[in-house]
Amino acid sequence: MVNIFYNKTTLNDTLIINLHFANANKVENHNNYSLMWSDDKLVGINIFNASQHINLEEGFLYCDSTLIAFIKKITNLDLSANVEKNFVVGKVLKCSKVENTHLNYCEVDVKDKILNIICGANNVKENIKVVVANVNTVLPSGKKIVKSKIQGYESSGMLCSNSELNLASEQKSGIIILENEYQTGDLFVDVFANKINYGIKN
After folding, report:
1. Can you tell me the distance from the alpha carbon of 158 to that of 170, in angstroms, rounded to the nearest whole number?
2. Percentage of the chain lying above the pLDDT 90 cut
3. Degrees, nearest 5: CA angle 81-82-86
4. Which residues have a Cβ under 8 Å from the Cβ of 117 and sit 6 or more positions away?
5. What are the CA-CA distances from residue 10 to residues 14, 23, 59, 129, 156 (Å)?
6. CA 144, chain centre distance (Å)
7. pLDDT band at 141 (very low <50, low <70, confident <90, very high)
């Protein structure tokens, strides 16, 4: 999974790229970038003075083909094999109460697989379209989504609310319920800042 963040001011014009949830124990510094390693595993990349090389929107970025090409140009690393859908449209197939809790055990179709996800939202129910944060995704807030076990149930992902994705909405609480025109398995693009094409500077 590739998680990318950019903010010119607070991040000092550094493009932050997270590849794995592991603590770095070695940093390899280069002129324009640094590589963070956990033993022999590359876990992160920082690209400095990013705006000198590419036009960037600020926020959480999807690792599209333009960003893949830019990262390869700067670091000579090809991240295309690491790219997965951080946020995907899912459909709740089954929803059952977890005894003696406010939680629900959900089976969610994301097209290529069925995910088991624990959800505490009061508006979750069967046959709705939702936004799923896949395991190994970092939310805009910095929260990491990991596979977990809750009340004896395995949970692989999270059903997201507007506030968790920093999206404005009239919906006051609970998870996002999508309109039917959203297609199960599609990337949920609204959360990403790069909804337009980038242009790599010469």
Report:
1. 21
2. 88
3. 130
4. 106, 108, 132, 155, 156, 157, 158, 159
5. 9, 22, 11, 35, 32
6. 9
7. confident
Could you give the CA distance from residue 8 to residue 128 in angstroms, rounded to a whole number? 38
Give the pTM: 0.90
Contact 8, 58 (CB under 8 A): yes
- Are 115 and 131 in contact by the 8 Å Cβ rule? The answer is no
Instruction: Give the pLDDT confidence of 60-87 residue by residue, as tens digits.
Output: 999 999 999 999 999 999 999 999 999 9
Query: Quick one: pLDDT band at residue 197, thresholds 50, 70, 90?
Result: low
The DSSP line for 63-129 is: --HHHHHHHHHHH----GGG---SEEEEEEEEEEEPTTSS-EEEEEE-SS-EEEEEE--TT--TT-E
